[in-house]
Amino acid sequence: MAKKTINDFRQMVEKGEKIVYLTAYDYLTAKMQEKAGVDMILVGDSLGMVSLGYDTTFPVTMDDMVRHCQAVRRGAPNTFIVGDMPYLSYQTSNEQAIANAGRMVKEAGVDCIKLEGGGPMIAERITAIQQSGILVMGHIGLTPQFMGQIGGYRAQGRSANAAMKLVREAKAVEAAGAFSILVEGVPAAVGKAITERAGIPILGIGAGSYTHGQLLIYADMVGMYDNFTPKFVKKYANVGEVLTNAFKEYTEEVRKGQFPNDDEHTYKMSEAEVKEFL
Ligand code: KIV
Ligand code: NA
User: Fold this and answer.
1) What pLDDT digit, counting tens, does each position of 88-108 carry?
2) Which CATH number fits domain 6-237: 3.10.20.600, 3.40.50.880, 3.30.160.390, 3.20.20.60?
3) Domain segments of the chain: what residues?
4) Residue in 115, 217, 220, 228 to alter for ligand 1 test, most ligand atoms within 8 A of Cβ
5) How far is the CA of 217 from the CAs of 13, 46, 133, 237, 262, in angstroms?
6) Please, what is the angle between helix 160-176 and helix 120-131, to 10°?
7) How far apart are CA 230 and CA 217, in angstroms?
8) Which of 8, 58, 131, 202 is most buried by a 10 A CB count?
9) Span 17-30, mean pLDDT?
């Protein structure tokens, strides 16, 4: 299948077809997701927790993001890839934001970048990056780079006032030139209100069923990341358990001398050669 473009996503929204979105951080996972036919892959700065073992997304660097976006691009050459802008790669100035978004495109071949926030400063960055020719996905609601101000990993927009603020932020991000917005961690009614008022594709993670598309962190939905699982995650597999069991079985078999089996798992040599050699 050909790689989808902005036009395909707009058409999908018009036809009411859901956009399927998953995170990936490495070559193998991206390859499987492309094979499965997902529409869009996010190389999220959740990389920090899922692949690098940090407690938050803050330590993730541009070099980390570029390296992992490259790996995902190699695994999914025909899938629309969104590269997440890590903390302090866009906040400081329009120039830095453009330069770093440009690295994602030039060095890793991503199709779009994503950045967090719905305030006036972020709107200015979105416009700057968009005007440099790069597709921008906004990200509002539960935005981990604002964790300190949010006061932890908690749902957003649960009061009428907070919900109205998110609806206004979505409008501001759209007006700034974002091609799409990801809404995270809000009640379904808020996801619906934002989607109904939007003129661009609205993707949701933990934002209910009404958004134009759905995102999950792949390591959550296959049961690999078990440090913390948000309420909105559905587990489609227990890959963590499958892998742990395989590692255990291997450990036991090596210790007992059951692996390798020399009839099955080793290279052959003719009896004559063995005799001569010994
Ligand atoms: O980094 C990420 O994976 C994200 C999603 C959780 C929304 O930004
Ligand atoms: Na992120």
Assistant:
1) 999 999 999 999 999 999 999
2) 3.20.20.60
3) 6-237, 242-277
4) 217
5) 22, 8, 28, 13, 41
6) 20
7) 10
8) 202
9) 98
217 Cβ inside 6 Å of ligand 1: yes
- Map residue 180 onto helix, strand or coil: strand
CB 79 within 8 A of CB 3: yes
pLDDT tens per residue across span 36-69? 999 999 999 999 999 999 999 999 999 999 999 9
Mean residue pLDDT across the chain:
97
Nearest ligand 1 atom to alpha carbon 23? 3
Which pLDDT tens digit goes with each residue over 212-234? Answer: 999 999 999 999 998 888 999 99
Q: Could you tell me if 19 and 41 are in contact, meaning their C-beta atoms sit under 8 angstroms apart?
A: no
Which structure tokens are listed for 259? 């692996």
* Nearest residue (CA) to ligand 1, atom 3: 44
DSSP helix/strand/coil, 32:
helix
- Ligand 1, residue 46: give the atom nearest the CA: 1
Q: Supply 210's token pair.
A: 């009404």
Provide the strand spans (E) within 60-187. Answer: 80-84, 112-114, 136-141, 180-184
Are 76 and 41 in contact, with CB atoms under 8 Å apart?
yes
Ligand nearest to the CA of 205: 1
**How far, in Å, CA of 256 to CA of 235, rounded?**
35
DSSP 16-28: TPPEEEEE--SHH
Quick check: CB of 24 below 6 Å from ligand 1? no
Q: Return the pLDDT at 21.
A: 98
Which of 200, 90, 197 lies closest to 137 in space, CA to CA?
Answer: 200
